[in-house]
Amino acid sequence: MDAARARTLWRMLDGRDPAIAVMVLGATKVCALVTEMLWKCSLANRHELCDAPEESNGIIERPKRKQAPIKLAKEIFFSHTYEFLAPIFPRLCYLSLTFAQPFLVRRAIDYISKPKTEGSGERGDGLIAAYALVYYGIAFVSSLYEQSAVRATTVVRADLSMRIYQQSLLLDRVVDTGDSSTTMMTADVERVQLGVRKLHDAWASFVSVAIGLWLIEAQLGLAALVTLGLIGGSLLLGGYWSGRASRFQKNWMAAIEKRLHKTVQVLKGIKSIKQMGAAPAIKTMLEDERQSEIKLSKRFRLQLIALVTLSFTSLTMLPALGLSVHNAVSDKSSGRILTAQTAFQVMTLFNIVSSSIQDCTSHVMAIMVGLGSLQRIESFLNQHTWTDPRKSIRDASISTDESSVGGTSEKKVLTDVAVKIQNVSAKWTEDGEAIIKDATFDVPAHGLTVIAGPTGSGKSTLLRVVLGDLAPSSGTVSIDDSQVAFCDQTPWIANISIKENIVGALPFYEERYRMALHACALDQDIEDLTDGDKHLCGLNGQSVSGGQKVRIALARAIYSKATLVLLDDCLVGLDTNTERHILGEIFAPRGLLSSAPTTTILATSSPRYLPFANYIILIDADGRVVRQGTYAEIAPHIEQLEHDVLQVSDHASTAREPRAQDSDELPNTAITNDIAFKKGANGDWAVYKWYFGVIGWMDFVVFLFLCLGFVIGVIFPQIYLGLWSEKSLQNQINTLPSFYGIFFGVGSMAWVALFSACVWLFLRIAVRTAALFHHLILTTTLNAKMDFFSQTDSGVTLNRFSQDLQITDMELPLAFVGATMNLLMLIAQCIVVTIQSHYAGFAILAIAVVIGFFHEFYLRTSRRLRVLDIEARSPVLSLLLESLDGLATVRAYGWAAWYLRRGIEVLERSQVPFHFLQSAQVTLNLSVDLFVATLALVVISIAVVQMNTSGGSLGLALFNIVGLGQSVKGVVFFWTSLEITLGAVARIRDFTEDTKSEHESDTKPPVEWPSRGEIHFSDVTLTHSTSLPPTISNLTLDIKPGSKMAICGRTGSGKSTLVNSLLGLVQVSSGIITIDDVDISTLAKDEVRSRFVVLPQESLILSVSIRDYAKLFGISDEQEIIQGLKKTGLWQTIEQGGGLDMIASSDTFSHGERQLFAMTLACLKKGKLVLMDEPTSHVDNDIQTQLRQTVFDTFPDSTVLCVTHQVATIVEFDIVLVLDDGKIVEQGDPKELLHQPTSRFAQLYSAGEL
User: Fold this and answer.
1) How far apart are CA 557 and CA 570, in angstroms?
2) DSSP 383
3) Nearest to 794 by CA among 812, 805, 781
4) Which spans are transmembrane here (predicted)?
5) CB 532 within 8 A of CB 503
6) Domain with CATH 1.20.1560.10 in the chain
7) Band of the pLDDT at 1059, cuts 50, 70, 90?
8) Is the Cβ–Cβ distance between 164 and 190 less than 8 Å?
9) N or C: which terminus of the chain carries fewer CB neighbours within 10 A?
10) Which residues, at least 6 apart from 330, have a Cβ–Cβ distance to it below 8 Å?
11) Residue-wise pLDDT tens digits, 714-725
């Protein structure tokens, strides 16, 4: 406006000053506008201006900020620009050749309809050449485009997977977000790669619709505009429903993530679940999660049904609407209302436009769903990552009051400080209570510092603060700039060999390695292993014993030569001889750590390590540092502090190391790969039969009938149009009502049939199979024998609950409906083409045979490739779970880069079968396109040579060839997709049939059994596997009702095996075990376990509320639960966390508190037989005494069997059973046996082996 005013003033007035003033004013406004548009931070020198986006963003940036574009999509695009742009040119060529088809149809009908002349032969040859050029061109440019799209999909898949894995290594709180990465690595990445694959098809479909409408308008005139409303409505509704589908898909993915999170916890705690007889309750819990997930998936499925039905609306209603309007308004004086040339050219265009509309809706939905998954991934990648909260000790101000007691020996210890803690408070949750409160101390460099305190005092939390894994809520932590070694309370063992677990990412030094093995007493264990230090440890160390895991982790710390070593009560689980050996080799004056320039911090609740310490820090139960100093300073106060802070242990350690033969894990067993799908990999109709049996034969017949109704509704109007276009003008006018009725009536029938078929499949069949497949996998997993979990990687099992179920939930129904619809359509089109062109029928038969052979060859390859693709994801998931479990250890040792390289290696291996499978599909599509091109060439050649075909018949044949090409590609694509996705069904079938169940009987014991608790072993031989020697041989033992028996013995003597035989976790090779005169081998194992009170060594933690946790074990009285928690001292912690609604997690309780929680639930359960396997190994002695007395008071008349090594515990029992090499060597009153020098029990105690 200012420019216009300036121009007017300049021309109207003699003086130019007003005009110049207006021009200056306008220029000023332009400058103000430009500066307002600029981003202020680019012009500012101070970064404070960038804190508030309202201050720094321009008027353009503000709305852009509100739109919140997906930055990850931009990053991926610019990272792989060539791969994204490469498909554009071949896709444009494909689009151009596709629109040449309707013109070829018109030219062919014109050629046949006109009389033959001298130039007809040349024109006929040209027509044949044009058909060859167009159809063979379509085949080649289509394959070129698809291969380019496959390349883009492959690189995006690798990029996203690597980003997710890399982010997982940087997570700040793995317990909150770790398991979501497994869902994103599988389900979300699959959806994103599908969206990328359809990206260019989507924009090409919109272009195709626009061009098609323009060409239709050239033939039908204004009648084409009527169809524009239907097309516009379809596209708008498709976009709307695609957006809704994306939102519902996010909710569905969240439900899948929640189910998988609990599934991972169940797989980790499967041994404890079986011991406690909780498998039925766990099964119900996970199936409820699955039902909730299925319920949420229905909303997504409804949007999918709407989109599929909408996409096919154009196929049935566009021709009806367009041709009907044309017939109503056309000029009746032209001889015919609609000629064959125009009819089938327009029908071909309608077919292309309809197909494009279908592609628009389906591809847009795939892209929207992919964007939804991409947003989930981006949110995950944008989560707060771990940053080291510690400071360098060189930067910390270390002040020493030289005026007071300066120069004393105690103060000289602190002149060189390795760790400095100043006013530190720490808590695991933002709204939780501080566990460590205002701690201040210095850790002297070079030597052993012991942090001691009772169970639950916060020792582990304090070590995590020093490690940097947990940021303090207040205060500062300063450490020396040095490498840190960390041994967690639960040892982290990777699924690699023993040697690789110890050496890790460091260079290998033979001498250092041997010294570490000897110091941790591992050299003898390795000699006993068949494959030595190359023995695979398995996921979470499943193929090594608990004590071996402790020593491997400790050897790793020694080998690392770290200058700061953090040990979180990691000597628990070792027998006294082994513990003494390690203490002497490590902490003695000439020990490996004592003699090296290494600072070691050991957190423990036992005072027996205090004499080894150079410095001691005592923490009370409230998390406060109450005393610190050297051992000489602390020693005079130890007696006073025994009951206030420390807990004096007896002569024995808190737990003894069980060998592999004394545990329920199989020793020396290599972890096997996923070997399922042996029968399905070769392909057989039994898989189809089994699947149809799962969905129900009657439901399949109903679905098939509805699909047939849809095909008839599509094909019959085309046949009628061919006949109607050949009629005279008067006959066409007379039959217009029939024309309208057939096109609209039959088209509506096809639409209703399609909608009904989709509802029947997606909301009935797919929902039922989703629940059933999960039930089969879950039941088989929970019923499997324990050796299955020792021999099978957890990543393989988790892959069944994620990848296989994802395929059967979504990919399988889509492939099933696509294959059925296209097969029926293909049969109908072949019949039409054969009737209209008889010789083409022979060509169809001959070429179909060739394609059949090729297709069979392809299927044999693609099935195996799909299986390899599924199984290649298992190592990726296994490595992901492994690194998440040991994230603190990986960071401490600086192994993140090494694990990233391992992740790249397994990801690259997983990419190979995926890319080969996609490339094989491109090759198959090329062969199909060549088949269609050859068929079109045969039909047009016959028509040109014979010249005895009517225009309507040829038009119908050529039109159906265009549709036939699409149908053949659809049949082949969806059939092969069905065959491939049925690989997941075959894996489920083979898994359920081949996995041996531990349940040999389903007989339930009497309701009140066991009523006495009398146990009898009669000549019993026990083994973990038929391939291993017996652990216990020919054992005969009678245990009277109400007895309190402690079981002890040397390492590997069979103590745990004896107890677990009552739970059915080991194999009884011979003999009989009876309880209350009932042979337990004749009873259902879950029923037997549920009748016992079991306290396992490893406590189970599930992400459920305390109330729901108790319900898993049949305890529902809330007041009873609260009273039990008060007895064990846990109620105050739980009440502060939300009471019975508090969610249990690894952050909620320490290791000792988990055992207290398990003890609480056990004491609330009634039973005549109580089995305990080192149930208090992580609690201090006062709590052990309290819990032992609680058990005796709660179960005064029950039979109690307890595996233990603590003399203070053993002497409280009525009977002690001493085992050696799987045989009973002594039993009797422990107090009396201790006073007998010749007693085996007394000898074990004196030798320090208890």
Assistant:
1) 11
2) S
3) 781
4) 20-39, 199-216, 222-243, 304-325, 337-357, 700-720, 740-763, 812-835, 841-859, 920-945, 957-978
5) no
6) 673-837+949-993
7) confident
8) no
9) N
10) 223, 337, 338
11) 887 777 776 666
